[in-house]
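Exam revision sheet. Question 4 asks you to relate a sequence to its structure. Input first:
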Amino acid sequence: MTPDMPLAHAGSMLFSIRKSNPAGDPATDPEAHCHLDITIYDNNQDEIGEVLGAEAPAGKAVNVNSKLPFVLLVTVLEEDADPVLFDYADQHWAYADVAHGCNFGQYDTGDREGDCGFSC
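Answer key, structure tokens:
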């Protein structure tokens, strides 16, 4: 999804997960952790929140602050094949949730990109 595409929900986000050292051991190498780039757009396609390069150890939520009334929480789990989890207010969904318009690619040399929409 690009910012000029029509949005199906009141908010949407572009999402990128990076592992600088995908073969490293997260217990000893911070570069083996996921790092998140997330941009939130409103329904007018204006950027209203962003986090770049946020370290995301497995199972620990990353806060994405924005102009929205609640914080978007994003959690990456242990294995690359595990779902990415999202929480916003009383909404909870995973990266493959069709109701939230999620579209995520597979990991490609340590990078994974996608987008989702959500009500806000």
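Marking note for examiners. The chain has no helices and nine strands.
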